[in-house]
Design brief:
Layout: H1 5-15, E1 22-27, E2 33-40, E3 43-50, E4 57-61, H2 73-82, E5 86-91, E6 98-106, E7 112-120, E8 127-131, E9 137-140, H3 175-182, H4 190-196, H5 202-215, H6 218-230, E10 236-240, E11 243-248, E12 259-263, H7 267-315, H8 319-331, E13 342-347, E14 353-358, H9 365-408, H10 413-425, H11 433-436, E15 446-449, E16 455-458, H12 462-472, E17 478-482, E18 490-492, H13 501-513, E19 523-529, E20 533-534, E21 545-546, E22 550-554
Antiparallel strand pairs: 1-2, 2-3, 3-4, 5-6, 6-7, 7-8, 8-9, 10-11, 10-12, 13-14, 15-16, 16-18, 17-18, 17-19, 19-22, 20-21
Helix pairs in contact: 3-6, 4-5, 5-6, 7-9, 8-9
């Protein structure tokens, strides 16, 4: 990605609009993110600083982030030192990938002191560091390892900027001087530009080479790009196959026609557009990591239990033979010699064929017969219990699949928290005392309207599925669900009125879209009236049985929005 020193230069210029504002609120939505709400007269903006490698950046943002129930320690520390602090400058040392936000704040003694928040965007060493008035580090998002020979980032240490290789600064050196220093134009390539010019990313270097070939001059090419760096430039987002691919402050002309271009009013809006969906997905994935691991472990354990129980159940298939052996021994006790290893008897249950019955030589004939009856009874009881247990195992596997499907379709951290609460209610995880005291969050079904004007609700998880089907919907409303595939319950609030095929297809497509089969085509979806859908007592969340249904085959419409 192109968050290079040049792009950061553009962002720093933008952030200077916030100078003289005060810190109103500080949040830490995830371990790698900080959000500041800055206010002054006629100005109120959020500033996002992300230190996650691969998506590190700083910019204004309009996104509303969900915050953890209790703020992390680093967030509490930032609040302690920067609450109500005044932002006096946003600077960048040369074209380094470092932004320095300088604040003034009152300390415990009431004296006004200067505190710096330094955001370093240095690949896998990206960090956010709080530096006190004497230049000493108060704390940082990531601390260095004292045992390693690396720059010390620890509380109490003097902050020092990372070592840098001296390169040509395009902000202070003109294009012709840069071109002369680089050398022969024929030998110039992307690597040479990267090694000699400060703040240029590989994307910008490739653009310089491409323009040089068109203009016939490296100096002329450098001049056009440097002018875009010094002046307003072009907040440009490149799309490939409809997905955000890269971004830049200069017009990118060296890509082929398969790349689409979109410009933005400012660089912060550009970054928000590029990272919003990706960041939300990563944030949800991080929030759900522990329950995904838990559910997968529970699923694997249940699959192993089911496999063992099915093996034991298979052994019960010959229980009738045990009963017949007991009956034959009982009928021929007078013929059995004590101490015999086996007894051959006419099987009057099978056309009088001779059957060879194994015997325990240590037992009497009567006890051998009794043993076969006892084994038959044990096997019969085992079969009854194993049948019930295997059915329960299968239900749990279906439930775990439905939970994993709900997690994959989650659109926010609150969705994950609802799933976590559902698992706690079902007894799979321990419910914390803090959460037990809170009311369940309100239902937030996905809502749609058919062409005929009927409301269509889609459950986002098993808890909402149960409420939709068993409480909210009327007995004559239509219920939809993918056939034998984990997914959402979909309700068309028809009230028993005749519903057209168009509405049925739309509701079925929504059911397919909000299921494990979202990426498939020709998905079978069952539908029936609510009065034919029942939830068995004691069944898992989201589990129902139904009858008198019809089936329609549809392809999910991924573009459908609620």
């Amino acid at each position: 990605m192109a968050f290079d020193g040049g792009f950061l230069h553009k962002i720093v210029l933008e952030l200077n609009k916030a100078v003289d504002s005060r810190v109103d609120k500080v949040y830490q939505p995830s371990k790698d993110e900080l959000v500041f709400l800055l206010r002054k007269k006629g100005f109120a903006q959020r500033v996002l600083i992300t230190a996650r490698p691969g998506s590190a950046r700083i910019c204004f943002t309009d996104e509303k982030y969900e915050n953890p129930m209790s703020p992390p320690m680093f967030c509490m520390l930032i609040r302690k030192h920067l609450s109500a602090a005044k932002l006096i400058s946003v600077t960048q040392p040369k074209l380094e990938r470092i932004a320095v936000l300088t604040f003034t704040s009152a300390n415990e003694m009431g004296d006004v002191v200067e505190i710096k928040l330094i955001a370093e965007f240095l690949g896998n060493k990206t960090n956010i560091i709080l530096v006190g008035p004497e230049g000493r580090i108060i704390d940082s998002l990531r601390r260095s390892d004292p045992e390693k020979n690396e720059r010390m980032i620890l509380p109490g240490a003097i902050y020092q900027f990372p070592e840098r290789n001296e390169k040509l600064d395009p902000l202070t050196v003109d294009a012709h001087t840069v071109a002369d220093c680089i050398g022969a134009e024929k030998d110039c390539n992307e690597r040479i530009l990267l090694d000699n010019i400060d703040g240029f990313s590989p994307l910008i270097c490739r653009e310089v080479i491409f323009r040089a070939e068109k203009l016939g001059s490296l100096a002329a090419s450098l001049e056009t790009v440097i002018n875009e760096l010094k002046e307003n430039g072009t907040p440009l987002l490149l799309y490939k196959d409809g997905e955000p691919f890269d971004f830049s402050y200069a017009d990118i002309t060296h890509y082929s026609d398969e790349f689409e271009k979109k410009t933005f009013p400012d660089y912060s809006a550009l970054l928000n557009a590029f990272y919003s969906e990706r960041e939300n997905t990563a944030r949800i994935k991080h929030a759900a990591a522990d329950i995904i691991k838990l559910v997968n472990n529970l699923k694997n354990r249940t699959e192993k239990k089911l496999s063992l129980r099915l093996c034991d159940l298979k052994k019960c298939e010959n229980r009738e033979k045990l009963r017949i052996y007991g009956e034959l021994l009982k009928a021929n006790l007078y013929r059995i010699k004590p101490g015999s290893a086996y007894f051959e008897a006419e099987n009057y249950y099978d056309n009088m064929y001779i059957v060879k019955i194994p015997l325990d030589q240590a037992l009497s004939p009567q006890k051998n017969a009794a043993k076969y009856f006892k084994d038959y009874k044990k096997t019969y009881t085992a079969e009854q219990k194993l049948t019930a247990l295997t059915e329960k195992d299968r239900e749990e596997l279906v439930y775990f699949d439905s939970v994993l499907d709900s997690i994959l379709r989650s659109e926010s951290i609150s969705d994950i928290e609802e799933i976590r609460e559902e698992l706690a209610d079902a007894g799979y995880i321990k419910k914390s005392a803090q959460k037990r005291s809170k009311k369940s969050p309100p239902m937030k079904f996905k809502e749609y309207t058919s062409d005929e004007g009927y409301k269509i609700f889609v459950g986002r998880n098993n808890r909402e599925n149960d409420y939709l089907t068993t409480e909210l919907a009327g007995k004559n409303d239509l219920w939809f669900h993918t056939k034998n595939i984990p997914g959402s319950h979909v309700i068309v609030f028809s009230g028993g009125a005749d519903v057209s095929d168009i509405t049925i297809i739309k509701a079925a497509a929504l059911a397919a879209q909000n299921s494990k089969a979202a990426g498939s085509s020709n998905v079978p979806v069952d539908y029936t009236q609510i009065k034919y859908v029942k939830k068995p007592s004691g069944s898992k969340p989201g589990m129902v049985i139904y009858k008198t249904n019809k089936t329609v085959y549809v392809t999910p419409d991924k573009k459908e929005k609620n």
